Amino acid sequence: MAQHGWEAVGVDFSILAIWLARHKARRAGIKGVRFLVGDVTRLDSLKGHFSFALDIGCLHGIPLEERDRYAAGLKRLLEPGGTYLLYAWKPRISHGRRMGISPEEVAGLFGPELAIKSVRHGEDSAGRPGILTAWYHLERLS
């Protein structure tokens, strides 16, 4: 995102992931990006408003009891008219644990503040057969 002129903030709980992201950004000479080690269910330290939020595979892995905090933080940070793109696995059982999120759960978590504009269904492209996915395009209402 920062390579294309956006001011960007990346948040991950993994110190290694943040270190690698910072390293890659420095090597590529990318400016205008901040990488923060943090818990996406506790975004209180982020201030201001964002016009765009992108989640590729985070929400579907958050335990059910913590998803409300994630959604509340995102709704607080996304400005009216802002876009939230979410890539998530659809519900399934993995190692005895429920993973993924359904379109109805997405609507319930983010509504009425965010409206689902479109959903594009598919399958995981990383070579994991049988994992159904969806891209969600949501918009923050005023």
Q: Any overview of this molecule?
A:
The protein is α/β, with parallel strands linked by helices and 142 residues long. It has two domains: 1-38, no CATH class; 50-142, Rossmann fold (3-Layer(aba) Sandwich). The protein is built from three helices and eight strands, in the order βαββαβββαββ. It has helices at residues 15-28, 67-77, 103-110, and strands at 8-12, 33-37, 50-56, 78-89, 92-94, 97-99, 114-123, 132-140. The strands form three sheets. The protein has a four-stranded mixed beta sheet with strand order 3-4-8-7. It has a two-stranded parallel ribbon with strand order 1-2. A two-stranded antiparallel ribbon has the order 5-6. The longest helix has 14 residues, at 15-28. The protein is globular. It starts with 7 loop residues before the first strand and ends with a strand.
CATH superfamily membership of the largest domain, which one? Answer: Vaccinia Virus protein VP39
Number of DSSP helical runs: 3
CATH architecture of the largest domain: 3-Layer(aba) Sandwich
Major pleated sheet: 4 strands, mixed
Supply the CATH class of the largest domain.
Alpha Beta
Oligomer: single chain
Task: Find the CATH topology of the largest domain.
Answer: Rossmann fold
Measured by DSSP, the beta-strand proportion falls in: 35-45%
Name the structural class.
Answer: alpha/beta
Low-confidence stretches: none
Please give the domain count: 2
Distance between the termini: 25 Å
